[in-house]
Amino acid sequence: MSFELLATDPSSSARRGRLTTPHGVVETPVFMPVGTQGTVKAMHPDELKALNSQIILGNTYHLFVRPGMEIMQAAGGLHAFANWDRPILTDSGGFQVFSLAKLRKIKEEGCHFQNHLDGTPMFIGPETSMEIQATLGSDIAMLFDECTPYPCEAKEAEKSLDLTLRWAKRCRAWIDEHKPQTGGGAQQHFGIVQGSVYEDLRKKSARELVAMGFDGYAIGGLSVGEPEEDMMRIAEWVTPLLPANQARYAMGLGTPPQMIELIARGIDMFDCVLPTRLARNGTAFTHEGMMNLRNACHAKDFRDLAEDTHPLCRGFSRAYIRHLVQAQEILGLRLISLHNLHFYASLASRARQAIEQGCFAEFRAEVVAKYTSHPAAPES
Amino acid sequence: MSFELLATDPSSSARRGRLTTPHGVVETPVFMPVGTQGTVKAMHPDELKALNSQIILGNTYHLFVRPGMEIMQAAGGLHAFANWDRPILTDSGGFQVFSLAKLRKIKEEGCHFQNHLDGTPMFIGPETSMEIQATLGSDIAMLFDECTPYPCEAKEAEKSLDLTLRWAKRCRAWIDEHKPQTGGGAQQHFGIVQGSVYEDLRKKSARELVAMGFDGYAIGGLSVGEPEEDMMRIAEWVTPLLPANQARYAMGLGTPPQMIELIARGIDMFDCVLPTRLARNGTAFTHEGMMNLRNACHAKDFRDLAEDTHPLCRGFSRAYIRHLVQAQEILGLRLISLHNLHFYASLASRARQAIEQGCFAEFRAEVVAKYTSHPAAPES
Predict the structure, then answer these.
(1) Coil, strand or helix: which one is A57?
(2) How far apart are CA A11 and CA A32, in angstroms?
(3) What is the mean pLDDT of residues A49-74?
(4) Which residues of A touch B (CB under 8 A)?
(5) For chain B, what are the domain ranges?
(6) Distance of alpha carbon B38 from alpha carbon B42, whole angstroms
(7) Confidence band (pLDDT; 50, 70, 90) for B352?
(8) Which residues of B touch A66 (CB under 8 A)?
(9) Nearest-CA residue of chain B relative to A85?
(10) Taking CB atoms and an 8 Å limit, are A329 and B44 in contact across chains?
(11) Which of A188, A278, B41, B103 gives 20 to 30 Å between its CA and that of B186?
């Protein structure tokens, strides 16, 4: 088994685990920085290692469109191409096809679309997605699914889920036939639970995927606009149906308290663009909420971003970083990205420690109580 | 004396020197990365140290306009603000006032202008420039001068030079009165030789500045459009008139062969925006000339940028960097900036070694012969 359960929290469903992949071990709960186009925005791989990033994401859709599979094949996969020797997880491409591509047509065979760069007609179906991800050589490949929008009528959600399940079967068949390898080991494949906000659909999705047997399971279609209570409820419906000895991944999430609350519901893996996306907007995460460095109150604040900021950010004052942001200097977003990724990595690391030490309940209460979720609230 | 002459080249006027400043020692000939707005574009100070950057530049005009002197004063100067503990040289602000500011009016007292950001009316004169640079706390401050355009009639050039010389006297008086300190030592001040392409004016400028007595001397008004032969001729007129035991700085230069040819004419210090500016355009320096990473011929070229690229750039192929440039990912320009700054730093370091070892003539011939000066010539 690639996933080892090391400890569980008596007060919740939180778990401390260890996922072994061909390119290395991942301690969970884990936060995974997003490397959309084969690079975590503004970061050097050496910095990601200094941040203790255990595993990063790659986006199948983006890499399929550019640089394309011919170059990726010639490079020998994404690890070699991006000069990253630790684990990589790739998504299926489905989400971006639905959110970015033009003139997309979803059919039984898969999805026809025009790419967002130059409108070239392209196709991704379950087998294509598996094949692309095999070429990318990611350690963990995600199944090709359809992600329902929010809100979504029950009937539509069911129709979409049934298609996703038929696609999952085709992915399963492709994997069994091709047995893709990477880094001298077997590529792992995670199923994605869909079903919108409907309990019966979510449970059906989880049960059928588990019956097909994958290496791990993700919850998809979260954070698409639904209330936070729905997000938590969905996790509560689904996780009890997933095998305890396999990893669970909540896709595309979330704010710091959401991450902690989902850990409490038995989720092991997270990815989120917020740390790097908000950095480009001048926003830093703190234990008390978000800090917008553009605000005038930071102009003469010569303190570091936080006392526990990353060593690479020490000695750079809020006043200086504010100046860099105002002057649109790259070092500004680099420093905030480093700080934010460190913030998320530390949160996951502290969660791991809290579960190990049996004090997750206190940790959870403290983090959630301290954090103000108003995004970039005006300060002073 | 702050400048020590360690070795001279028998075949040319090249010199190997050592400049001692309050924030540390600078081995010359030296290339100084440009940190216009208090940051060398896209670089982290740790990277600059990994590149062996001995001294960086700051732009008085830019820092005066933003963040402004109130913040700079509160920060305790540019070293503390930018988290850089090695030497800094600041220019006088004159060049940017003339090239960037709007509605500028040059009068006897100095220059009135509207800043390029929001049009606020501002003033910089010789005393203001000295005062700003004292507040910035640079190790080397440049005198406030007027830089003539090219071409420039002899009469105009003479009128401008006379103003620059009167301004130099006022700078001298301000320095003698205020004796600005930085890093526990005396700030140094370099005079700037002007006079366009006219031998009599250039020589007059050099003689009068030397008579006033400064800590070092720069040649200004180069690379403003004049033919390269003029640039070299000007250096040949001026350097013999400058004291051998003081540093000489050619402002805003140049291509790799220009740098070597000016070293051969007795110049010790260089600054140039090309390494970082061209990086943002996808262009890397090589010993054979410039390489435009956007060109399709690099799409499947999995070699490093160069065999002697910087360790921080190793393992990143031309194909990958091309992808990053095409996808407008920051890591692309970071890697090319690192490579280009390393290229310039290595060139200066090799020049130092060649002068020490008595083989500068061979080094000079080899570098100049190999380098093709066609900017970003199409390859393949």
Answers:
(1) strand
(2) 25
(3) 98
(4) 37-39, 41-44, 46, 66-67, 70-71, 74-75, 81-83, 299-300, 302, 312, 315-317, 319-320, 323-324, 326-327, 329-331, 333-335
(5) 3-272, 279-370
(6) 11
(7) very high
(8) 323, 326-327
(9) B315
(10) no
(11) B41
Q: What percent of chain B has pLDDT over 90?
A: 95
Cβ distance A319 to B66 less than 8 Å, yes or no, reads no
Residue B37 neighbours by CB under 8 Å, 6+ apart: A323, A324, A327, A329, B59, B62, B63, B66
Rama region for A93: left / alpha / beta (φ>0; ψ in -120 to 50; rest)? left
Closest CA to B101 of B111, B115, B87: B115
Q: Which long-range contacts (CB under 8 A, 24 or more apart) does B280-285 make?
A: B280/B41, B280/B42, B280/B333, B280/B337, B282/B322, B282/B325, B282/B332, B282/B333, B282/B336, B283/B336, B283/B375, B283/B376, B284/B336, B284/B339, B284/B340, B284/B343, B285/B256, B285/B339, B285/B340, B285/B343, B285/B344
CATH class of domain segment(s) A3-272: alpha beta
Would the pTM of this model clear 0.95, i.e. be above it? yes
A89: phi then psi, degrees, rounded to nearest 5: -115, 135
**CA of residue B359 relative to chain centroid, distance:** 26
In this predicted model, what pLDDT tens digit does every residue of A162-199 receive, in sequence order?
999 999 999 999 999 999 999 999 999 999 999 999 99
Catalytic residue among A91, A139, A145, A268: A91
Residues of chain A with pLDDT > 70: what percent?
98
Contact B121, B70 (CB under 8 A): no
- What six digits make up the tokens of A141? 């490949």
- pLDDT score recorded for residue B10: 97
Dihedral angle of Cα B20, B26, B31, B35, to the nearest 10 degrees: -80
Tell me the C-alpha distance between A307 and A318, whole Å. Answer: 12
Residues of B in contact with A316 (CB under 8 A): 83
pLDDT in tens, B207-242: 999 999 999 999 999 999 999 999 999 999 999 999
Q: What chain B residue is nearest to A70 in terms of C-alpha separation?
A: B300
